[in-house]
Amino acid sequence: MINNNKGLFSGVMSGVLWGLDTALTGIILTMSPFIETQKAVLLAPFVSAFLHDMFSSFWMLIYMTIKKQLKHVISALKTRSGKYICLAAIFGGPVGMAAYLLAIKYIGAGYTASISAIYPAVGALWSYIFLKEKLSKRALIGLTISIFSVIILGYSPDKIESSNYLLGFFLALICVLGWSLESVICAYGMKADEVSPTQALQIRQVVSAVFYGIIIIPSIGGINLANQAIVSNTSILICITALVGTASYIFYYTAIDSIGPVKATGLNITYCIWAIIFDTVILDNNITFKLILCSILIIIGSVMVSKN
Predict the structure, then answer these.
(1) Which of 65, 69, 180 is nearest to 125 (CA)?
(2) Using CA of residue 10, residue 14, residue 226, residue 97, what is the dihedral sign?
(3) Contact 208/53 with Cβ under 8 angstroms?
(4) Distance CA 308, CA 183 (A)
(5) Closest C-alpha to 200, from 120, 117, 264
(6) Maximum pairwise Cα distance, the chain
(7) For residue 230, with 0-12 CB atoms within 10 Å meaning exposed, 13-18 middle and 19 or more buried, which class applies?
(8) Stated pTM of the model
């Protein structure tokens, strides 16, 4: 029961903190040097994601050093589970997030967010297939309510500017695949050799940052922008945001380890609510009736998923 309560609390906090991380990231993308040229605007999401995970890996390195767990991370990396977590990192970070950002480019943020919101349902499918995790009818109904509420919340009837809709739709599905597989693969990895959530997260952030830095950023010509961002004042806010994101990841991975990937993602998906709430508080944006209604439905659905 204690472990279950810990998992539920961790799942909720992962959503709250990721909502704050999202709001802060939105501010970062409006700061110099990400707005100085048209190329910088296009590369900004990729570069900021790379710097976010890089700083996050540094925060985790400090945390694990203080906890005297660094040598265990190195040992865990050599295990079969460590390799699974490396795979999960690539699916969740560079693959999932890169596909998400590219989909936004082709079909817009509203449609991309709506499509990507089905990742918990797909994660439930993978859990059923690979982890033999069963879902009650109430949990399935709750998950469905949450997912459709997020779709309604993110859906925008605005005209799609890009004519290449099929490519954007396909990229959004790749994002769903990446995010859903990350939680299931991590759950399997942490169970197999008893790798702790913090050890898994340290591995995840380092692998994601390295993959971004070695493959994605050079391939899109973002090295100069990354260097400019690091030496600018914006890097301070990125570093703080990475700390918030790191805490969110720790709670998320703890929830996955404690209550399973399905319930963890069911609670984590509430980040969309918290992001808009923080965005309203920080940037003084208006709260609409649709936001209030969908927020209530998402919370109800999440409780149905997580409740025994």
Answers:
(1) 180
(2) positive
(3) yes
(4) 20
(5) 264
(6) 54
(7) middle
(8) 0.81
User: Measured in whole angstroms, how far is the alpha carbon of residue 223 from the centre of its chain?
Assistant: 23
Kindly report, residue by residue over 125-136, the tens digit of the pLDDT: 788 787 777 778
What is the CB neighbour count within 10 angstroms for residue 7? 22
* Alpha-carbon gap, residue 131 to 206, rounded angstroms: 26
Instruction: Supply the pLDDT for residue 214.
Output: 94
SS3 for 238-275 is HHHHHHHHHHHHHHHHHHHHHHCHHHHHHHHCCHHHHH
pLDDT, one tens digit per residue, over 210-251 is 999 999 999 999 999 999 999 999 999 999 999 999 999 889
Helix/strand/coil (H/E/C) assignment for every residue in the chain: CHHHHHHHHHHHHHHHHHHHHHHHHHHHCCCCCCCCCHHHHHHHHHHHHHHHHHHHHHHHHHHHHHCCCHHHHHHHHCCHHHHHHHHHHHHHHHHHHHHHHHHHHHHCHHHHHHHHCCHHHHHHHHHHHHHCCCCCHHHHHHHHHHHHHHHHHHCCCCCCCCCCHHHHHHHHHHHHHHHHHHHHHHHHHHHHCCCCHHHHHHHHHHHHHHHHHHHHHHHCCCHHHHHHHHHCCHHHHHHHHHHHHHHHHHHHHHHHHHHCHHHHHHHHCCHHHHHHHHHHHHHCCCCCHHHHHHHHHHHHHHHHHHCC
The CA–CA distances, whole Å, from 3 to 125, 186, 192, 199, 259 equal 24, 18, 18, 18, 8
CA-CA distance, 25 to 131, in Å (whole number)?
34
Structure tokens, 220: 């899109």
Across all residues in the chain, what is the average pLDDT?
A: 83
Taking CA atoms, 200 is separated from 54, 76, 117, 130, 237, in Å, by 16, 8, 24, 19, 25
| Residue 73: both structure tokens together | 């991370």
pLDDT for 217 equals 94
Burial of residue 65 (CB within 10 Å: 0-12, 13-18, 19+) is: exposed
- Which of 74, 69, 30 shows the shortest CA–CA distance to 48? 30
